[in-house]
């Protein structure tokens, strides 16, 4: 069966109210699909973040997605009070043909991207990025991310723990072997053979020296293996390189980019960071556009 896309123009939150049962009832509304003969719409929701899949549960209307029929608004009830939810919608024609997702919205504030429009082609360079600023009560600064790899842009700004240091703090294997031999000889012969006339201090210094020599000659076996692993990983890395830009815009709500290539697809997003609490961030959806042919 042939599948095709049904486009959703816009998708808006209208009401976010708290019921007497201390749960959220959230009303959503969207524009109709420009494709004729749409049979209905699916409303997807999820708590906590906007990462797909949108597989939320808890609404009285059912688990995500909720089939709301051929209507342009709906209310999801009994969602947990005080929790942030994210929503998107799709249109369908019979159960087997479904559109792509609309833009993602939330019951709490997120930076709303204005231009370029999502999925636009032949976008002239320089490209002007613009987003809506925060409502009253938020004190934030904005960071713009854009690049050619969707996954890199999506994960940009997330904390990545530093790699574990490998092998530098291990005791050399050669030294361990010599120490073991030393104690075995002490147990059996009550002295070191054949250097039994030396004092224990000189014997210990000799052991350390021999252990270091064995380790330097490859006794530990760790260095060359690590280097081989790194070479193999580098050899498997694709030759095509992606680019990722990070622009701190302060309180500004736009940026002009002159450094974009022709006929190239880019992804972009904006992250707002609270000026008092750097761990408190508000992240927009990721949008895409393709630049014009120069």
Written description of the protein model:
The chain is of the alpha+beta class. It has 3 domains: 1-108, Immunoglobulin-like, CATH 2.60.40; 109-158 and 240-294, Immunoglobulin-like (Sandwich), CATH 2.60.40.10; 173-219, no CATH class. The chain has 4 helices and 17 strands. It has helices spanning 150-155, 173-189, 200-219, 223-236, and strands at 11-18, 23-30, 40-47, 66-69, 73-80, 85-93, 97-98, 105-106, 113-115, 120-123, 127-131, 140-147, 244-250, 254-257, 265-274, 281-283, 287-291. The strands form 4 sheets. Strands 10, 12, 13, 15, 16 and 17 form a 6-stranded mixed β-sheet that branches. Strands 3, 4, 6, 7 and 8 form a 5-stranded antiparallel β-sheet that branches. Strand 1 (11-18) and strand 2 (23-30) form a beta hairpin. Helix 2 (173-189) packs antiparallel against helix 3 (200-219). The longest helix is centred in the last third of the chain and has 20 residues, at 200-219. The radius of gyration is 31 Å and the shape is extended. Mean pLDDT is 77; it is low at 14-20, 159-169 and 218-239.
List the helices and strands and how they pair.
Elements: E1 11-18, E2 23-30, E3 40-47, E4 66-69, E5 73-80, E6 85-93, E7 97-98, E8 105-106, E9 113-115, E10 120-123, E11 127-131, E12 140-147, H1 150-155, H2 173-189, H3 200-219, H4 223-236, E13 244-250, E14 254-257, E15 265-274, E16 281-283, E17 287-291
Parallel strand pairs: 10-17
Antiparallel strand pairs: 1-2, 2-5, 3-4, 3-6, 6-7, 6-8, 9-11, 11-14, 12-13, 12-15, 15-16, 15-17
Helix pairs in contact: 2-3
């Amino acid at each position: 069966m042939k599948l095709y896309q049904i486009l959703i123009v816009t998708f808006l939150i209208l009401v976010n109210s708290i019921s007497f049962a201390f749960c959220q009832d959230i009303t959503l509304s969207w524009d109709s699909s420009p494709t004729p003969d749409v049979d209905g719409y699916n409303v997807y929701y999820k708590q906590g973040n906007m990462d797909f899949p949108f597989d939320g549960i808890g609404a009285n209307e059912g688990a995500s997605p909720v089939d709301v029929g051929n209507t342009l608004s709906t209310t999801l009830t009994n969602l947990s009070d005080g929790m942030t939810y994210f929503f998107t919608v799709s249109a369908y024609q019979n159960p087997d043909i479904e559109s792509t997702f609309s833009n993602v919205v939330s019951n709490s504030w997120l930076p709303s991207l204005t231009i370029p429009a999502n999925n636009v082609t032949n976008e002239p360079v320089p490209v002007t990025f613009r987003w809506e600023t925060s409502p009253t009560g938020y004190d934030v600064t904005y960071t713009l991310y854009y690049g050619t790899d969707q996954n890199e842009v999506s994960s940009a700004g997330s904390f990545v723990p530093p790699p574990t240091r490998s092998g530098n703090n291990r005791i050399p294997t050669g030294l361990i072997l010599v120490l073991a031999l030393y104690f075995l000889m002490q147990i059996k012969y009550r002295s070191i053979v054949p250097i039994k006339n030396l004092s224990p201090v000189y014997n210990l210094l000799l052991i350390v020296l021999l252990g270091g020599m064995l380790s330097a000659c490859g006794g530990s076996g760790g260095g060359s293996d690590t280097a081989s692993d790194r070479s193999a990983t580098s050899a498997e890395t694709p030759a095509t390189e992606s680019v990722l830009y990070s622009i701190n815009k302060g309180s500004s709500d736009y940026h002009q980019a002159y450094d974009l290539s022709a006929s190239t697809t880019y992804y972009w997003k904006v992250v707002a960071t609270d000026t008092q609490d750097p761990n408190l961030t508000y992240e927009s959806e990721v949008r895409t556009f393709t630049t014009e042919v120069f």
